[in-house]
Amino acid sequence: MVRRFIRFLLCLVGIAVVGGAVFYVITAPNPLRDSHWSGLGEPDVKNGETVFWAGGCVSCHAAPGAQGDAKLVLSGGLALKSPFGTFHIPNVSPDEKAGIGSWTLAQFGNAMKRGVAPNGEHLYPSFPYGSYARMTDKDVNDLFGYLKTLPKSANVAPPHELPFPFNIRLALGGWKFLYFNEQPRVALENPDEKVKRGQYLVEGPGHCGECHTPRDALGGFKPGMWLAGAPNPEGEGRIPDITPGSKTIGSWSEGDIANYLETGFTPDFDSAGGSMTEVQQNIAHLPKSDLEAIASYLKAVPSH
């Protein structure tokens, strides 16, 4: 009897050890090796500026209410409310202590493409690395080079305000296991180079789906609903469907979409409003060819 009990306990211990090992493998951060980032050469700062505006970095990382050149001081401090708690956007200026001035390219690249902080912890997907994972290494390198040219700020954002269990970063490994990948969001049939460029901008640095795609209870994108519209993550209103069958832009031509992204005016001479106002102002910095590429992609995605 005693031997059976001991064998039973050993069996439980074995199951716990195996389960713990599997849990660790699933939830452990998975950064790219430092060697992955070697050999990229000097960054193309001009291209880095284009990536910067495509990604709309100022919308989250500039100080709340900043205008003009002050937007280029990426001091952080914005409080981003969500169903999971309040995220406080960090300083990503070149400041060596408060910002990312002491980071290496590998550390920056792993934050961008793997959601892993320099200390090895998971980053919360309020930072849209789920989209940035699709960026090329060159664009990451160029963006990092451009960020180094911007003004420094000593501002330190407060810690996130998240209730249990969302304050347990290890659980983010499970979220990544369920939702994180580097594959295209939609499979397009024989896309030309223009559409491919638009897909890259929308699905990668532009991270448009982060607001325009509905999410499930765990914060992952609902399958088959890419860009189908979603509740406003900040709580009021709704982010519109921007697929070809939508009431919002379904009747617009590619030229209409490109013009809207450039000027902020719809074909009916209405203007961008709400959070889209700043998004449009950021995207307007892109060359016209990129705006046209985004329009072509939006006309090529499946309708809902």
TrEMBL record:
SUPFAM superfamilies named in the record: Cytochrome c
Molecular function terms from GO: electron transfer activity; heme binding; metal ion binding
Keywords: Heme, Iron, Metal-binding
Cytochrome c domain ranges (all copies): 43-151, 193-302
InterPro entries given in the database record: Cyt_c-like_dom, Cyt_c-like_dom_sf, Cytochrome_c-type_DH
Pfam families: Cytochrom_C (PF00034)
Protein name: C-type cytochrome
Lineage: Bacteria, Pseudomonadati, Pseudomonadota, Alphaproteobacteria, Hyphomicrobiales
